[in-house]
Design a protein that fits this description.
The structure holds two protein chains of two kinds.
Chain A lengths: L2 H18 L2 E8 L3 E7 L5 E7 L5 H17 L7 E9 L2 E9 L6 H5 L6 H20 L2 E2 L8 E3 L5 E3 L6 E2 L22 H4 L8 H17 L11 H9 L6 H9 L3 H6 L11 H13 L1
Antiparallel strand pairs in A: 1-2, 2-3, 3-5, 4-5, 6-9, 7-8
Helix pairs in contact in A: 4-6, 4-10
Chain B lengths: L1 E5 L5 H4 L9 E4 L6 H14 L4 E4 L31 H18 L3 E3 L12 H16 L5 E8 L8 H9 L6 E7 L11 H16 L3 E4 L6 H6 L4 E4 L26 E3 L4 E3 L1 H9 L5 H5 L1 H11 L5 H18 L2 H20 L12 H15 L1
Parallel strand pairs in B: 1-2, 1-8, 2-3, 3-4, 4-5, 5-6, 6-7, 7-8
Antiparallel strand pairs in B: 9-10
Helix pairs in contact in B: 3-4, 5-6, 6-13, 10-11, 12-13
Classes of the chains: A alpha+beta, B alpha/beta.
C-alpha cells in the first residue's frame, strides 16, 4: 500500500475510534486493499479495526466483508469473531470498516521463524484449520489463500484462519478471467487447479491442498513437492504440472503419524479428502492414535 | 456386488421371473410405460419382492417429446423441444416436477435428470449434472438420489479426463453415481476402444476410492470391465445383448423388425447365433457358467424342437449377467479374459469361424489390454 494511503487510512481509523468510543492503539499491518489497526474497546478488550481502501480494490473488500458476514452467522473458534461492519464518512468520503477480535498470538510465519512445529502441534493445527474449512465449505466459500501468513493464533494457542480477501463464493459466477494463466492466490501454496486457472475444479479441496502444503512446511520446513535443489519456481512448476510429490516426504509423513498430509496434497481434487468431515476425522484418528 | 435390471419394453415379467432372482434392483423407465403402469409395477414389487430396490430413472437423456410414453409423465417438460437447457430456471422446474412424481410413486431411489450433451469435451455439462443432482437431493430429503453422470466414450480417451470428471462429480452431495457410457458403436458390437475403456475404468476407480458407489447403467457384456475397475453395481436389460446407449437406441426402427436369438457364452465373452452355438459345442463346449444357467437347457430344447428362443436368449443373458456380476473382480476378470483370448486364438487356428464376420473375439484382446494397462497404471 502506498504511504499516502496508509496515512489516510490511519486517520480514518482514528476518527472512527473517536466516534465509536474506542481507543486507537497502533497499526497492526496492511494489505493490498485494507489496513488493520489494534484498538481497545470500551472495556479495554483488544480489537482489530480494518479500514478498506476505496477504489480499484473495492471488489476484494466486498468479497472479504461478504464472506465474514456469512461466516459470522455460524462462528467457530478457528475463525475470527466478526463483531461489526460499519460505513463511516471521513473528509467527505465513505469508508467501509469492520471490527473483529484482535488475535494476540501472532501468525504461523512468525512461529515458524523460530523453528518447525512439533508433530503434535502440527496435528492440532491441522485439526483446527480443518474445522474452520468445514464452516467455510458449508457456506460454499473457498478461501484461496491459505498460507502461514493467514493462520493466526489466539493467546491460548488456538489457530485461526484469517484474511478472506481472495474468497470465492461458488454459488456465484467466477470473477477470474478464463484467459489468465493462473488464478488468484499465493503460487507457492496453491493447488494445481488454482495455478492452472481450472475454475471448474476449484472447491474447498483447493484450500485443503494449501493447508496440506502449509502443514508439511510447518512439520518439515519444506514444500511437499520440493525435490533436492529446487527453488520456489521449480516447486510451483512441479505442482502446476501435477508431478507426484517426492516419495520420501510422503513416507516420512506417514511414519510420523501425519498421514493425512499425503492425501491432502494429491494433485487432483478427487484424490483428496472429499468432505471436510472426512479430513477432520482423519486428523482426529491421528490425534487419538 | 449388486446387479440391476433395467426395465424396457415388456420387461415386467423378467423382474418377477424366479430364475432371475439374482438381481437386487430394478431401474424403472418412464419411456415405455405411463405413470399408472409404473405405479402398479411398484405396488407389485412391494408386495412380491420387498427386498428388490426400485430406482426411478427420469430418462431425459435425449429430450424429444415424441419418445414413447415420456410426454405423458408430469416430470417431462412440455417445452422440451424448445427449451434453453443451459438455464438454471428450467432445471429448477424439471427438478420440482420430478420431486412430485417421486413423492407420488415412492421408489426406493431416483436418478438425477441429465441430458446427453452435444459434446462431452467441455466441463460445463458435468458441472451442470452435479448442480442438478445436488438440487434434487436438497429437494428430496427422504429419497436417496443417484447422481447421474453421462460420459462420452471418445471423450474418455483424452489424457486425465477421468481425473477431471471425477474431481467434478465427487463434488456431488450424492454418494451414489449412476454412470452411463454414451458411444456411437453399432448395435451388436462391443465397446472396444482401449483408451476409452481405460478412461472409464479409471473414472469408476477414482469415484469408488473417493467414497461414491458407482452403478453403471445400460451395460452389456463389457460389464466385466466395470466390475474389474471396482464398480459397486451394474445394470442391464433384455435388449442390451444387442444394443448400446447410443442416440439411435432411442430411435425405434420404423419397420419394427424381427430379432435374432443370441446365446451368451462366457468362455468367449461373446453373443452367439444358433449355428455358432453348435460350432462352439463341437469345438470344446461351454463354460461352467453356461452349463449352470437354467435357460441353457431351455434353449437347447427349443432349438431341438425348432422353436423360437429369442426371449429365452434374453433370459440366458440376464441370468449370466447377474451371476458374473456377483463373482467378478479384477483377478477373476483378468483370468476369464485371458482364457477367452486363448479360446478365440485356438478357434482362429482351427478355422472355427462364427457366422457374423465381426464376431471374431477381437474385443477380448482389447479388453485384456484395457484391464492389464488399468492394473499397471
Amino acid at each position: 500500500m502506498k504511504p499516502e494511503h496508509e496515512q489516510a487510512l490511519a486517520q480514518v481509523a482514528q476518527a472512527f475510534c473517536k466516534a465509536r468510543g474506542l481507543t486507537f492503539v497502533c497499526s497492526a499491518g496492511d494489505g493490498a486493499f485494507k489496513a488493520t489497526y489494534r484498538v481497545h474497546g470500551a472495556k479495554g478488550q483488544p480489537l482489530a479495526v480494518k479500514v478498506y481502501l476505496q477504489g480499484a480494490t473495492t471488489e476484494r473488500a466486498a468479497r472479504e466483508v461478504g464472506a465474514m458476514l456469512e461466516l459470522s452467522k455460524i462462528g467457530h473458534k478457528s475463525l475470527p469473531a466478526f463483531l461489526d461492519l460499519a460505513s463511516f464518512q471521513h473528509a467527505g468520503v465513505t469508508f467501509v470498516l469492520s471490527i473483529e477480535e484482535f488475535l494476540d498470538g501472532g501468525n504461523l510465519t512468525e512461529a515458524l521463524s523460530k523453528g518447525h512445529l512439533s508433530l503434535k502441534e502440527v496435528v492440532v493445527l491441522g485439526s483446527q484449520i480443518a474445522e474452520a474449512l468445514a464452516v467455510v465449505e458449508q457456506q460454499d466459500l473457498v478461501h484461496r489463500d491459505i498460507k502461514p501468513d493467514n493462520i493466526m493464533f489466539r493467546l491460548d494457542g488456538t489457530a485461526v484462519l484469517v484474511d478472506f480477501g481472495l474468497v470465492r463464493n461458488l454459488a456465484m459466477q467466477s470473477l477470474t478471467q478464463s484467459w489468465l494463466p493462473h488464478g488468484p492466490g499465493t503460487p507457492f501454496y496453491a493447488a494445481p487447479e488454482q495455478l492452472n486457472n481450472e475454475k471448474d475444479l476449484i472447491d474447498w479441496r483447493t484450500d485443503q491442498f494449501a493447508l496440506g502444503v502449509t502443514l508439511a512446511l510447518a512439520a518439515y520446513g519444506q514444500h511437499p513437492y520440493q525435490h533436492s535443489g529446487d527453488g520456489p519456481e521449480q516447486v510451483v512448476a512441479r505442482v502446476a504440472a501435477r508431478q507426484r510429490p517426492p516419495a520420501d516426504l510422503v513416507r516420512r509423513a506417514q511414519a510420523d503419524g501425519l498421514a493425512p498430509i499425503a492425501k491432502m496434497i494429491e494433485p487432483w481434487p478427487v484424490g483428496r479428502f472429499r468432505w471436510p468431515k472426512d479430513l477432520i476425522a482423519a486428523w482426529q484418528t491421528v490425534t487419538t492414535a | 456386488m449388486t446387479a440391476y435390471q433395467q426395465m424396457g419394453h415388456h420387461s415386467t415379467n423378467l423382474v418377477f421371473d424366479a430364475e432371475l432372482s439374482g438381481y437386487d434392483g430394478a431401474i424403472l423407465s418412464p419411456v415405455n410405460e405411463d405413470e399408472r403402469q409404473v405405479r402398479d409395477l411398484l405396488a407389485r414389487v412391494r408386495s412380491e419382492l420387498p427386498a428388490l430396490e426400485t430406482v426411478f430413472d427420469p430418462q431425459l437423456y435425449f429430450p424429444n417429446s415424441n419418445r414413447g410414453q415420456l410426454r405423458t409423465w408430469s416430470h417431462f417438460p412440455a417445452d422440451v423441444d424448445t427449451a434453453d437447457m443451459t438455464s438454471s430456471a428450467w432445471w429448477t422446474t424439471v427438478v420440482e416436477s420430478l420431486c412430485a412424481v417421486v413423492r407420488s410413486l415412492q421408489p426406493h431411489a431416483v436418478c438425477s435428470p441429465a441430458v446427453v450433451p452435444r459434446v462431452f469435451s467441455s466441463n460445463e455439462p458435468f458441472v451442470r449434472m452435479v448442480e442438478v443432482g445436488n438440487q434434487l437431493r436438497a429437494a428430496l430429503e427422504d429419497v436417496p438420489v443417484l447422481q447421474t453422470v453421462l460420459v462420452g466414450m471418445d471423450d474418455m480417451t483424452v489424457a486425465h479426463r477421468a481425473e477431471v470428471i471425477a474431481s467434478i462429480v465427487s463434488r456431488s452431495r450424492n454418494d451414489r453415481v449412476f454412470l452411463v457410457v454414451c458411444s456411437d458403436v453399432d448395435p451388436r458390437r462391443e465397446l472396444a476402444d482401449v483408451e476409452g475403456l481405460k478412461g472409464i475404468m479409471r473414472l469408476i476407480k477414482f469415484l469408488e476410492e473417493g467414497g461414491q458407489k458407482v452403478l453403471v447403467g445400460f451395460c452389456s457384456s463389457e460389464m466385466v470391465l466395470w466390475k474389474a475397475a471396482g464398480a459397486t453395481a451394474c445394470a442391464t436389460g433384455k435388449f442390451f445383448n444387442l444394443r448400446r446407449f447410443t442416440r439411435s437406441r432411442f430411435e425405434e426402427p420404423a419397420g419394427g423388425g424381427g430379432q435374432l436369438p443370441y446365446w451368451f457364452e462366457e468362455r468367449l465373452f461373446a453373443h452367439l447365433r444358433e449355428s455358432d452355438v453348435v460350432r462352439v459345442e463341437r469345438a470344446g463346449g461351454f463354460s461352467d457358467a453356461t452349463n449352470r444357467n437354467p435357460f441353457t437347457a431351455q434353449i437347447r430344447e427349443q432349438m431341438t424342437a425348432s422353436q423360437a428362443w429369442v426371449s429365452t436368449g434374453w433370459r440366458q443373458y440376464l441370468w449370466w449377467f447377474a451371476d458374473f456380476e456377483s463373482r467378478a473382480n479384477l483377478a477373476s476378470v483378468r483370468a476369464g479374459l485371458r482364457a477367452a483370448d486363448g479360446v478365440w486364438r485356438e478357434f482362429e487356428d482351427n478355422d472355427v469361424l462364427m457366422e457374423e464376420r465381426q464376431n471374431d473375439g477381437a474385443w477380448v484382446r482389447q479388453w485384456r489390454r484395457a484391464v492389464a494397462e488399468f492394473k499397471s497404471a
